[in-house]
Design a protein that fits this description.
Layout lengths: L10 E6 L7 H13 L3 E4 L4 H4 L9 H12 L3 E5 L7 H6 L26 H18 L5 E5 L11 H15 L2 H7 L27 H29 L5 E2 L1 E3 L8 H4 L7 E3 L8 H17 L3 E5 L4 E2 L6 E2 L4 H11 L2 E6 L25 H10 L17 E4 L2 H6 L11 H14 L4 E4 L10 E4 L7 H12 L3 E5 L21 H4 L1 E8 L5 E3 L5 E11 L3 E5 L10 E8 L2 E6 L1 E3 L1 H10 L10 E6 L2 E6 L5 E3 L2 E3 L4 E5 L3
Parallel strand pairs: 1-2, 1-11, 2-3, 3-4, 4-5, 6-7, 7-8, 8-11, 12-13, 12-14, 14-15, 15-21
Antiparallel strand pairs: 9-10, 16-18, 17-18, 18-22, 19-20, 20-21, 23-24, 24-27, 25-26
Helix pairs in contact: 5-8, 6-8, 10-11, 10-14, 14-17
Length: about 625
């Protein structure tokens, strides 16, 4: 399938909200889009109230006009179903379709994402608006692809969700006996005698059951996927040639498993919003891009980013000149089919009126629009360089279930799963290594090295997959708490490690959380932070020991064990960045880049993004400070 349909080269544009503006602005928008090099816009994401002002009564006249004008101007359309924001008439008629928080409070209309994905009335209304859009626009010449919903992630703990959860559990476990066994139901008198006794894991007196919480996140991901597929199938039936996507978003609040979702979309799309204004924004952009490419198994599309600012907990910070283009090129070099933004024209009102846009409030005669235009008109010149796959021989395991499970308060010490993954990715990036991500149960055969950072939840299938990979000649590197529990959040006995003590040649006998802020030195290997484990050698060789620390001084910290044709390394602590760098040096993991540089090879082409304030030279390619380049790589 050609995606986006009818577009050659790279896509450039963003969310376009013409319904927020008078019609006389629309012609100016098309002219300015053409000037800026925009060739694709997303339309209709939050327009349900304008498309269906009353139940069953549609107003498509304004959208007809917009699509016709865009088509006449050569702008292709990514047409959205507006189900992420139900209109006021719907929520007044169906208050039970509003989402319920974990504390039992039902939220009210007034923002976006106020829906309960399990509510029958909401599902029916979603199908109805999707079918109406499909009937009217499936053959429209401007249509490049469909965009279902927006940023799935609104969890509801409602009665509707509970009923659907019970159906899901019965299909998964078959019997209450199996459920009680999986959830360790005899603990705290949580043994269920009837299916109707099972509730959503709302706020409770003390600690919740971790297996209950994990299964509810799995269920919510599946329930949202059902909602997506219902709309997708209606759109596909209307015109099988038009590709269909939805935009993934990143955050602890998002109960979506991209490994399960990716096969259901024609194009993986991702919204990248780094959460730090400093150099971590570049690190996060690279992380987001490598995750997206890995979920997709190849090309994907950056659906949203902010043009002029980086958001942080302290508020937005302005991007310096060239940073918008560099962030975009980080994504394009790593497989994105283009660079899209939220949004095209900055809004005058509403909660996101100060969100940056390609066309600022001050109009075209601005620094930002000149930068947008310069970059947009540069992209056609590099479109021929992005057809090759990204070169990567290292994979980092990405486990949504480990992320979900380690967010619970029941662990012996706080575990930041995302930071553990991001740390390994950024140290590899600083060493010039471009990494893929892989599912613990996925195909690892093309990689020489696989790194498992705190892969806390390890199923029997995943454990056997790692065993097979290593025995076949792969190099496996796992860090602390990997394989601590199985898929039911039950502890792996006799040494943890997913039952793979023979693979690693060690037995973990005790978890030893350390005081926050204190470091444990390792011999010639940097230091460990916050979490250590007591390890007993069972055939493995000790690579380095703890040099300091009660209980751990002199004990193995990093080990290696030959297994079949490969070898398994185990890191029994949370390493600091310098220690990971030392380990990767030992493993001879290095590439052509370095700190502040993104260097990505794709077939004969080398992409270089220089985020530093100094000119950089990689091979024969010289890249000015704060700039980027694409050239033939050395043969």
């Amino acid at each position: 399938m050609d995606w986006p349909r009818g577009l050659d080269g790279l896509s450039y544009g963003g969310d376009y909200n013409p319904e927020q503006w008078p019609e006389e602005v629309w012609d100016d928008d098309v002219l300015l889009m053409r000037e800026a090099g925009v060739n694709l816009v997303t339309v209709g994401v939050f327009s349900w109230a304008r498309l269906e002002p009353r139940e069953g009564e549609y107003d498509f006249a304004w959208l007809d006009t917009v699509l016709d004008k865009l088509h006449a101007g050569g702008i292709r359309v990514n047409l959205a179903t507006p189900t992420a924001s139900p209109p006021p008439w719907f929520t007044l008629a169906h208050p039970d379709a509003l989402n319920v928080r974990a504390d039992g409070v039902r939220q009210v209309h007034g923002s976006r994402d106020t829906y309960d994905v399990c509510a029958p009335a909401y599902r029916e209304a979603s199908r109805r608006i999707a079918a109406a859009l499909a009937e009217r626009y499936a053959e429209h010449p401007a249509l490049a692809m469909w965009h279902v919903h927006n940023e799935y992630g609104s969890t509801s703990y409602s009665e509707h969700a509970e009923r659907a959860f019970r159906v899901w559990l019965e299909a998964k476990y078959g019997t209450l006996e199996a459920l009680n066994a999986a959830w360790w139901g005899s603990f705290w008198s949580q043994h269920y005698g009837e299916w109707d006794q099972v509730l959503a894991p709302r706020a409770t007196q003390y600690l919740a059951n971790p297996a209950h919480e994990l299964d509810f996140k799995r269920f919510t991901s599946d329930a949202m996927l059902e909602h997506y597929k219902e709309q997708r199938d209606l759109l596909r039936e209307a015109n099988p040639e038009v590709p269909i996507t939805t935009n993934f978003v990143f955050g602890q609040w998002v109960p979506v498993d991209p490994w399960k979702w990716a096969p259901e979309v024609d194009l993986v799309a991702f919204d990248s919003y780094p959460s730090h204004p400093d150099e971590r924004a570049e690190q996060q952009s690279a992380l987001h891009a490598d995750l997206s490419r890995s979920w997709a198994g190849g090309d994907w599309l950056l659906m949203e980013q902010a043009a002029a600012t980086v958001h942080s907990k302290d508020g937005a910070v302005a991007k310096t000149p060239g940073r918008m283009a560099r962030h975009s090129m980080v994504h394009i070099s790593r497989g994105s089919k283009g660079a899209m933004f939220f949004q095209w024209r900055a809004g005058r009102g509403g909660a996101e009126q100060w969100h940056s846009a390609l066309l600022p409030h001050a109009g075209k005669n601005t620094r930002m629009f000149r930068e947008v235009t310069e970059f947009g008109n540069t992209l056609p010149g590099i479109a021929h360089t992005v057809g090759e796959p990204v070169d990567a021989t290292v994979a980092v395991l990405w486990s949504p279930e480990s992320w979900w499970a380690t967010s619970g308060a029941h662990l012996p010490a706080p575990v930041d799963y995302l930071e553990n993954v991001a740390q390994i990715h950024r140290v590899l990036r600083d060493r010039g290594v471009v990494a893929d991500f892989a599912s613990p149960e996925g195909d690892l055969s093309k990689y020489a090295t696989v790194i498992a950072p705190t892969t806390y939840v390890l199923s029997k299938a995943a454990a056997e997959n790692l065993r097979w990979f290593t025995a076949g000649g792969g190099r496996l590197v796992a860090s602390y708490l990997t394989g601590a529990v199985d898929e039911h959040c039950q502890v792996w006995l006799d040494g943890y490690l997913g039952g793979l003590t023979d693979l690693f040649g060690v037995r973990v006998t005790e978890h030893l959380p350390q005081p926050a802020g204190e470091r444990r030195a390792l011999w010639n290997f940097g230091a460990a932070e916050r979490f250590c484990e007591l390890v007993e050698l069972r055939g493995a060789q000790c690579v380095t020991q703890y040099a300091t620390g009660d209980l751990v001084e002199g004990q193995p910290a990093v080990t290696v064990n030959p297994f079949g044709e490969g070898e398994a390394w185990y890191v029994s602590c949370k390493l600091a960045d310098d220690a990971w760098d030392r380990l990767f040096e030992e493993l001879e993991l290095a590439g052509p880049g370095g700190p502040g540089l993104d260097v990505v090879d794709r077939g004969p082409w080398r992409f270089i993004v220089n985020h530093t304030d100094q000119e950089a030279q990689v091979g024969h390619i010289i890249v000015p400070a704060g700039s980027w380049a694409v050239d033939k790589k050395p043969q």
